Amino acid sequence: IGIRLEVGDRVEEHALRCSCRGSGEAEVLATLMCVRMAVEAGARHVHVYTDHKIVLCLINGKCKARRPRVAQYISQLRYLCNEWISCDFERISSLANLADPLARTFLYQR
After folding, report:
1. Residues 16, 33, 11, 2: is their CA dihedral positive or negative?
2. Burial of 80 (0-12, 13-18, 19+ CB in 10 A)
3. Kind plus residue range of the DSSP H or E element containing 89
4. Which of 3, 51, 57, 99 supports an S-S bond with 14, CB 3.0-4.6 Å?
5. For the whole model, what pTM was predicted?
């Protein structure tokens, strides 16, 4: 998965391997990890951009996770966004997603 975190003028990019069962689970995990990093960096607000409809659907409660692990990630994400940090979520096109190339770069470096 690819994660791009911008805090002020600082930009952090991470490419990580995960044992996710699908792209939806990977996107939810990437979102959770990004929000965790923002909390650790001391951010008070985070604006999350995603190109996956399922992430927004799950976050907004319009659909339910089928897999227990995804449901756990969503629960943790909601907790962080309600208790520690203010979160906004926005859907973007796949072409505008700056994190996906990071994940692909990681795959081809093996």
Report:
1. positive
2. middle
3. strand 86-91
4. 3
5. 0.74
